[in-house]
């Protein structure tokens, strides 16, 4: 199993979600956040009381997936989140070492079925 983390523009979340659903990938977790990366534009972005550094709004999507689904999910996110401009986001993929479904105690890749 793998954990896919995608940081995208918040305005594109609905497009990405619809594209993932249409491709048969159902289950995602979404976080609202702020980031200060190479893409931050000091002419458009500014600090806040919570985060005083220059920052941009960002939406983080997390998807736990079977090994065979990783590449199609990445391609779907990339195609639906790309505007062709700096700041479109980034995708990370990490291994999942252990997984347990709290409801019934099932473990491993079986919890994704």
Automatic annotation (TrEMBL):
List the GO terms this entry assigns under cellular component, sorted alphabetically.
Answer: cytosol
Give the matching InterPro entries. Answer: N-reg_PII, N-reg_PII-like_a/b, N-reg_PII/ATP_PRibTrfase_C
Q: Which superkingdom heads the taxonomic lineage of this protein's source?
A: Bacteria
Give one GO molecular function term: ATP binding
What SMART domains has UniProt attached to this entry? P-II
Question: PROSITE patterns, from UniProt?
Answer: PII_GLNB_DOM (PS51343)
| Biological processes per GO annotation | regulation of nitrogen utilization
Q: What is this protein called?
A: P-II family nitrogen regulator
Name the source organism. Answer: Gracilimonas sediminicola
């Amino acid at each position: 199993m793998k954990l896919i983390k995608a940081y995208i523009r918040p305005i594109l979340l609905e497009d990405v979600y619809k594209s993932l659903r249409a491709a048969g990938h159902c289950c995602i977790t979404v976080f609202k956040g702020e980031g200060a990366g190479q893409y931050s534009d000091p002419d458009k972005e500014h600090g806040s009381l919570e985060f005083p550094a220059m920052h941009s709004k960002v939406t983080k999507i997390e998807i736990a997936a079977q090994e065979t689904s990783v590449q199609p999910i990445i391609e779907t996110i990339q195609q639906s989140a790309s505007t062709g401009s700096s700041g479109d986001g980034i995708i990370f993929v990490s291994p999942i070492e252990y997984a347990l479904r709290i409801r019934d105690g099932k473990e491993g890749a079986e919890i994704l079925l």
